[in-house]
TrEMBL record:
<protein>
    <recommendedName>
        <fullName>Transmembrane protein</fullName>
    </recommendedName>
</protein>
<feature type="signal peptide">
    <location>
        <begin position="1"/>
        <end position="22"/>
    </location>
</feature>
<keyword id="KW-0732">Signal</keyword>
Amino acid sequence: MTRIVLAAIAALSLTACTTATGTGGSFQPIPGSITYGGQPRTKLTKAPIGSTFGHTFYDSRGRQVDETYRIQPDRSLVIVNRVTRIDYL
């Protein structure tokens, strides 16, 4: 019985995270994304091209969103991963 309960909790925990993909393997910016409304005005001049960094914010529904960005050769940013976490508690 305990194993069934633990398995159900584990399955529920895994379904609490969702990942969405946009067209062409890239993601479309959503409100809260660094690139929402266009590229940032400041360029990341010291960061190596191809390096990645993360950004965490909450969407309009109160869900935590974790995005990963990659720096392109022209110093623009592209979203390469997005995970939306839904809190069931």
